[in-house]
Amino acid sequence: MNIIAFSKALYSTWIYYSPERLLFDSGEGVSTMLSNKIYAVRNVFLTHGHVDHIAGLWSIINTRNNAMGDREKPLTVYYPAGNRGIELYADFLKRANNELRFKLEFVPVKQNERIPIREQSSTTRYIKPFSVVHTYSETAYGYHLIEVRRRLKEEYRSLPKEEITRLVKSIGSDEITETYEKKVLTISGDTVLLKKEDIIDTEILFHECTFLKKEDRKFNNHASLDEVIELVKEANVQTLILYHISSRYVRSLERTLRKVNIPGTRILFVHPEKIFEY
Ligand SMILES: [Zn+2]
Ligand SMILES: [Zn+2]
User: Fold this and answer.
1) Which of 62, 103, 184, 230 has the most crowded Cβ, counting Cβ within 10 A?
2) pLDDT at 122
3) Which ligand is located closest to the Cα atom of residue 140?
4) How much distance in Å is there from the Cα of 115 to the middle of ligand 1?
C-alpha cells in the first residue's frame, strides 16, 4: 500500500504518498487517521488555502511536538507563492508554537519549480507544481511527482536484444540511451478540469470530481465526472483516482461510477466517508 487518503468536498482532503513520505494537503482529521504515521511525513504540499485542505496542519504540528514519537524530524510545508490565506495561517502556527522541538519551515513555491525529493544515482525524483484554476481569489496549484528515467533512443528500439548487448559493450549504454521524465503521480488539487498537457502519460492521476452531475455545479470552480472522463480518455493515464467528491452523492456513488469505463485506464474513487488505501 502506497497511498492513504481521505477526501470529502468542503470538509477535509489529504493524500499521503508513503514511498516518498509526502502529504498532499492536510484537511482536518489527518493526524487522527494517520496516527503514528504522521511522524513519517517529511514534506507537505498544500494545493491552496481553503480550510478543508489546511485545517489539519495545526494538529500535525501539535501531535509531532507532544506525542512520544520522533520529535526531532524536520517538517517542510510547501505552498503556492503569494497565497495570502496560507501565509497568515503559517504566521499564526509559527507564533502559536514558538517552542517547537523540530524544525518547521514554510516554503513558497512557484509553478514549474523543481523541488528535489530523491537524488540518488539510481533514482531522481522531484515535485513540479503547476498552476490550476479554482476560485478567483485563490492561488492554487496541482503537483506532479516526476521521475527521471532512461530509455533506448528511438533508433535502437527495434533492434534485437543481442544487438543491444553488443552495442552496450562496444560504445556504452550512455550512447544508445536518453533520459526522459515520467509523471509518477499527479494531484489536481481543487480546480476546474485540468488541461490535457498537464496529465498526459501520468501513472496515477488524482483528479478532483466534486460533482457527479454537471447540473449541480453553480459556479465554474470545480470539475464534474463526465468532463474528467472525456479528458482522461485522451491522455494515456494508467490509474485515475477521482476525489474531492461531494457527500451529496454518497447513496448513488457506486452505482454511477460502476458505469464509467475508459479503455486502458483503471478508475478508482475516494469515497467521501471512507479512508482510501491503494
Ligand atoms: Zn476543497
Ligand atoms: Zn477549494
Assistant:
1) 184
2) 81
3) 2
4) 24
Residues surrounding ion ligand 2 at CB below 5 Å: 50, 190
Cβ contact 7:277 at 8 Å: no
- Collapsed DSSP state (helix, strand, coil) of residue 47: coil
Q: Show the domains of the chain with their CATH numbers.
A: 3-277 (3.60.15.10)
pTM of the model: 0.95
Q: pLDDT category, 237, cuts 50, 70, 90?
A: very high
Ligand 1 centroid from CA 10, angstroms: 5
93 to 34, 75, 100, 160, 189: CA distances (angstroms)? 21, 13, 11, 60, 23
Q: What is the pLDDT of residues 55-98, one digit of tens each?
A: 999 999 999 988 777 778 899 999 999 999 999 999 999 999 88
- Ligand in closest contact with the CA of 13: 1
Retrieve residue 150's grid coordinates.
532512461
Given pLDDT bands bounded at 50, 70 and 90, which one contains residue 120?
Answer: confident
- 176 C-alpha vs ligand 2 centroid, how far in Å? 46
Q: How far is the CA of 60 from the centre of ligand 1 (A)?
A: 19
